[in-house]
Fold:
Amino acid sequence: MKDLTKGKPSILILTFALPIFLGNLLQLTYSLIDTRIVGSFLGEDALAAVGATTTLGNLIIGFLMGLANGFAIIASQRFGAKDMPGLKKSFAASLRIGIIIAATLTVVGLVFLNPILRFLNVPEDLLSVAGEYSFVIIAGLLATLLYDVCAATLRALGDTVTPLIILTVSVVLNIAGDLFFIIVLKTGVRGAAIATVLSQLFAFVICWFYMLRKYEILRLSRADFKGMETGQIRFMLSSGLSMGFMSSLVNIGSLTLQTAINRLGQDVIVAHTAARKISEIYMIMFSVFGQTMATYCGQNLGAGETGRVKRGIGIAILYTCIWCTLAVVASYTIGGQLVYLVTGSRNETVLLNATNYLKFNTLFYYVTAVICVLRNAMQGLGEHITPLVSSSLEMLGKIVIAATLVPWLGYTGVIVAEPLVWFIMVVPLLVKICRMPVLREQKQEG
Structure:
């Protein structure tokens, strides 16, 4: 466990963020390897089928991850306040509420899968393969949720190393599973999805038994699942659903944009798939310091250390902006090589569109850095409305662009979409953060 309410904020934030960074980098590396395996052994048709539905998976899985992280904010506040009975009850509620929501999403997703894929404008010749992949991913949502809740709770206690170790084992198994199912059993894209779900299930089992053995405060009894007041449940749902919907609104916008991209042909679909995979690596620090600030602000708010919150936010923004500069340099020097590494394609249309996307978008990453840090910091401080407003603006902006600029400008419309939206969605965050009473207090660091 790590107490983020004492010590130098700059050092604490870095040491807390480093394992999260390595974990996210590991997961993204797997995602790139998975994409390369699919492209190399199953061809560009299969890669396009997976890419055409990636935003659907990101939407659902991102919601569950946001839900788990939102629940964990309550755990971090309880931990910061040294309220251990409250911590146990919040963990129990996370599991109970999360399982209900994940099961509901699974049923709805499987029942309406075909209509959803048609809404996404997945090309007819890719529909069957895309359906096979999406069916397995959705069927395994419960395993995803259970691991997310356990890992997020550990991070709420300041333990970011254990989730990293478990994730490492899971990723290795996932890659081995990809090769086994695709090359040996020849199960196609369905095999890649099965490997993903099995690795998530394995990660949850390891994480669960480790938590029971290592942390007595997380050993739940029947009493922990009972007696939670309606107000407490409402508070849990407010935090969890706010983080979940914040992620979902972002992904709904991307999903809508993907429907427009899917009309531009297979080359563009593959190019955008590659560009987004690389962008996920570029944006890794945004989510890393976002998760860090949610826990950091939650613990310090619980401990009443409001003076440390303001300083921590500034430090996190500085760190992410340094990373943005590195992303810009990479796009303008080795962007083309990165696209080839992801796809294995030498198609000039694919390479040109993907590199153009990267070169333009990275120039505006500094705005995104501020957005991600502030959104998550606000969630940790109990402000759930403004981050949702900001994410709603992103969703609406992408919907409008998908309906206007993309039909008019083609893939160029997609390239300019996100930077336009970023400048709009940062405004309410800046206004609100300057007005939050907790950040106006002048309490000095403890």
